[in-house]
Amino acid sequence: MSLESLGLTHDQERVYRYLLRTPHADPDEARAELDLPRLATVLDELRTLGVIDRSLVPLPPAATVDLLVRHQVERTSRELARLDAAFDVVRDLAEEARRGRPVELVERIEDSAGVNRRVDAMRDRAETMNAKPLPRGRHHTEEATRRYRRRLADGLVSRTLVGAAALDLPEELAYARHLHGLGDLHRVTAEPFLPLLVIDRRVAFVLLEPGRSDTDALMIRQPGIVAALVALFEKLWERAADLDGLDLSATEARVLRALAEHDKDETAARALNVSLRKYRAHVAALMTPLGATTRFQAALRAKERGWL
């Protein structure tokens, strides 16, 4: 069986097989032996796919096939989501015929129950991006866990961004870790952001009053606006810390953010609404785990770790 059926090009497969046969291959010798002038480009492509590492060491065959199958599943899911957009057009046309007017690309929905009904109706969604800066106040049940695990196993790609303040409550941290363990990847940030839900990069939900969970929401299907919200989520996600690697508290995350944003201790303490003495105690406590001797160095190393 050729690996081309799993997404590799002819040249990529040739190079991968050569590296399996020739450990510690010299690139110049490989280029000559394979008669492949564009070898450097193919190697970069294989590295991007994760099939080889920087030292030209290939993944074992079983791991490679598993990886390529997962890539194919992800591509198929994205393609199915794109094709599913055709049915959105059918629904829009039917709705226009029923209402006798064009379907709105930005629609106001009353209360969270209405939002939940709209989201639940999108049963075949392939990807979700969820930004949750506030505590969710939810508790998982065994039945909900089973349903969600099945959807993730069926290919749902879900990422959830949570605010550091939301994890001050032990039950919120436990809930985040529970979903993260199921495959709904969670990251944590101390940056301020607004609640947001994006489905399949085509539909977005935002609250009209971000500080309230019971307020009306907007369902947005205007492509330009949705694309901008997706880009915003991706930037926040890139800078956030993975929940598995989180080894600082929500309070420490806020102190680090204040340390990076304010030049004076007095200003930072006011921003955190704590006394100057307490703020300095927090900063001093962070110096050791960061291996820092100055506050500038502490902020720099926190950024290197992805804490800021």
Automatic annotation (TrEMBL):
PANTHER family: HTH-TYPE TRANSCRIPTIONAL REGULATOR TRMBL2 (PTHR34293). It comes from the Bacteria. Residues 245-302 form the HTH luxR-type domain. It comes from Streptomyces siamensis. This is HTH luxR-type domain-containing protein. SUPFAM superfamilies: C-terminal effector domain of the bipartite response regulators. Signal peptide: none annotated.
